[in-house]
């Protein structure tokens, strides 16, 4: 089942939660009395979103045309966005590094997020603006001290993520945080695909980035060093994952900074991230005003 967070007429209003059906979107909050209207709230309160989606699809609720909605990030305000660096062998190698002994975790803030179709913002202070195609994992229930055997039980679904990076700022300090948290640089969407529709851990899925139609990255999620289950097990040794948290699983080789000469995104470009079975995330690039 595929879910979207979206705006209709008022972009300042809280994003609505919808399910895709018949080529359109059903607003779950309007489809039935007391229906879920927010993804994070629904997950946190234990709403059975798959059952709510099935009921909405079986109903006569209006189907809103996709052309009439404006996407929000599929998780509009995650409590945590945990990212992995160097989680593909080939990407570690192109950066001159061996396989890390432990995942290089870092955090993003929710204010960096943008939706499918929104502008990725190349900041005023840098021209070294790079793309990173990534699988995003959305947590469905509270989790601590999980094992690899039961880690996937806490996953609600998967989406596409573009961990757009300001490379010179990323390298100003040993911690990557500052280069990964500029406004308008974390694209998440366009849909959230429930875990039951994909292979366990979303393995075996082709993942690509395309800049102005040219393939820049082309890999498979099987190539990740740490898969989804192992990543969740490692994280929950340390912290509690909560409903609506997002884990961005790292990027394969082909990023702009590793090319000769480097390829940086610029005003007027379009960057696309596509993962088989999940969808196509597209964002135009604009210079910050």
Question: How would you describe the overall organization of this protein?
Answer:
There is one protein chain. With 289 residues, the chain is of the alpha+beta class. It folds into 2 domains: 70 residues, no CATH class; 207 residues, Fumarylacetoacetate hydrolase, domain 2. The chain is 14% helix and 33% strand. It is built from 6 helices and 19 strands. The strands form 3 sheets. Strands 1, 2, 3, 4, 5, 6, 7, 8, 11, 12, 14 and 17 form a 12-stranded mixed β-sheet that branches. It has a 5-stranded mixed β-sheet with strand order 9-19-18-15-16, with no helix packed on it. The longest helix is centred in the last third of the chain and has 11 residues. The N and C termini lie far apart (38 Å). The mean pLDDT is 95.
Provide a concise account of the structure shown.
With 289 residues, the protein is an alpha+beta fold. It has two domains: 70 residues, no CATH class; 207 residues, Fumarylacetoacetate hydrolase, domain 2 (Alpha-Beta Complex).
What fraction of the residues are assigned to beta strands by DSSP? 25-35%
- Level-2 CATH architecture of the largest domain: Alpha-Beta Complex
Secondary-structure-based class equals: alpha+beta
Distance between the termini: 38 Å
**Cα shape:** globular
Number of domains: 2
Number of helices: 6
Instruction: Count the E strands.
Output: 19
CATH superfamily of the largest domain: Fumarylacetoacetase-like, C-terminal domain
Overall mean pLDDT: 95
In which range does the helix fraction lie? 10-25%
